[in-house]
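In response to a reviewer's request, we include the raw inputs and outputs for one of the modeled complexes. The two entities were modeled together in a single run.
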Amino acid sequence: MSQTLSPLPALSPALADSPFLRACRREPNDVTPVWLMRQAGRYMQEYRDIRAKVSFLELCKSPELATEVTVYAQERLGVDAAILFADILLILEPIGFNLEFAKGEGPVIHNPVRESQDVDRVRAFDDKSTLGYVFDAVSSIRRALKPNIPLIGFAGAPFTLACYAIEGGGSRHYEKAKAFMYRDPGAWDVLMSRLVDATIVYLNAQAEAGAQCLQLFDSWVGTLGPDDYRQFVQPHMKRLIAGLHKGVPCIHFGTDTSTLLELQRDAGGDVIGLDWRVDFAQSWDRLGHDVAVQGNLDPVVLFAPEAEIRARARKVLDQAAGRPGHIFNLGHGILPQTPVDHVLALVDEVHSYRPAAR
Amino acid sequence: MSQTLSPLPALSPALADSPFLRACRREPNDVTPVWLMRQAGRYMQEYRDIRAKVSFLELCKSPELATEVTVYAQERLGVDAAILFADILLILEPIGFNLEFAKGEGPVIHNPVRESQDVDRVRAFDDKSTLGYVFDAVSSIRRALKPNIPLIGFAGAPFTLACYAIEGGGSRHYEKAKAFMYRDPGAWDVLMSRLVDATIVYLNAQAEAGAQCLQLFDSWVGTLGPDDYRQFVQPHMKRLIAGLHKGVPCIHFGTDTSTLLELQRDAGGDVIGLDWRVDFAQSWDRLGHDVAVQGNLDPVVLFAPEAEIRARARKVLDQAAGRPGHIFNLGHGILPQTPVDHVLALVDEVHSYRPAAR
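The model returned the following structure tokens for the whole complex.
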């Protein structure tokens, strides 16, 4: 699929020179920029107050409320970037999936792909207005954020989306998805290709609406070994990332990817996500320092006492050794029971600590 | 804790020369030995028939039924070893935990360790008769198995047991367990030490009752990064493994351990478990060939068509390249929906394929 890209909004000097975007470009910073996956989420009372009134999908589909929670979280925490409030599964609706967020049960897809021929049902994302609420939220958040705070748009990576589409919801072992992949690699490639096509349009439209950076969440890809990743995922990720606006940095994120890091880097992305299972310094060495990295504190560390949180944050920063191109983050999203005070302490420590260069 | 070891039963020549025990000792074999974690389990109709009559705990506590399912699975599959039918949590009962297997919900511990002082409640395993049913099952299975088929005893590794003891059951993020560990490393060490003491007694008694090999299941340890493993787990694993009968090979198993393999090897074990996320050949190179390895097929591959299962089994065998010291296994337990025919095809392929030496 070829696509004519629409123009991007001009990048203001205040945004271009923000610590976050400087880190994406591996330019030196006085302070390591930090943001946290799921920073607008259930651990915050203000978010729970809003969710007491509307469902999760209603919140996603209200640009006004999505703006409120996104901007509130960025300002409350004082982090260096905001991330669009949305869900990786929203893109599945316009391409033919019947999506529901059942209370307390997580997402359910009522018409999953199970047989090879089911792939024919997956439609093109050819009417962007079906996700108009996402692009409206992006524009609205961009207007509401301080002019020097970048906004991150995002999408699920095709492997993770394909797992949801085949499993019909969350999964522990992904046996339906992997069995599909092993049984009919041709149908798998068609499914992945359609997800890639849709995601390229979706992410570029987010950038055109006002996002300064795009993150791909391949949250589940760590269930694959390197050979499977190379065969079933990497070509699709390459095509996806190559199809994105060049001027917008791309964060390529996964968890449990210690055996996949080089393959992910080769697939593309300006910034590679690291989780807490890997040694930060060793992993950046493996990736090479011509790519930026994001991570890698264990979200569970935020349940430890404040002194321990600060010590562990310093350890990550020491491993980065002040090298340009580090965005501090957790290795995965903030957990719902996390104390807000602990998150504030973490952000304070990242902003105030100065690691010695190695 | 010092412990006087009771004598082991004499090892018959038929057992000593079995392909499985030869592989544990890294001696050459004509055929790669294979067994499968959870080989006696829910994927088998005969097992489900028995479970229709008794609960999971009743099955564990009946030496007669445990013998029946253990021996049946070994003979039905034609695998090279049997593994005791039991559960890693059984040891928690005599040391003070109130354990229940709630129908369809997995294990529940009604009195978990939550505060530091709760550790004082964890008792010594000083009355082996409380787990007499396990040792009776071992003796009974040993008598019922063919004389050339080794029997594997097992226990949960202390980290995985501690997670259960603190979380009170299964967990996704282990936030209670890790927060405990970060908050009070002293209390953590006491808890781990008590679990190690109990496990040494428990495993040695299994060997004395007739098990020819002992596997430690550290199924959840892959949630830790290398620094945490080194600090919070490795010293305990070292002491545990050093406390086991010398003549009985120990399999040190974990999942999601790609960043921990060298640390696990240094903690001990004659055989190190590999899961499917790692490249088999590279990982054995990392470990060094003075240790045996077990693995590493993805259990989900058993849902693929038979030809794909056989091809993927050959790939693992090719990576082992006929080098002495490989025990073929899955990277984790067989999943409940696995077709039995597919398991038979896998065992057949491992037994009939001859990889070219590298």
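As requested, we also summarize the result in words. The CA atoms of residues 256 and 277 of chain A lie 7 Å apart. Chain A has a mean pLDDT of 96.
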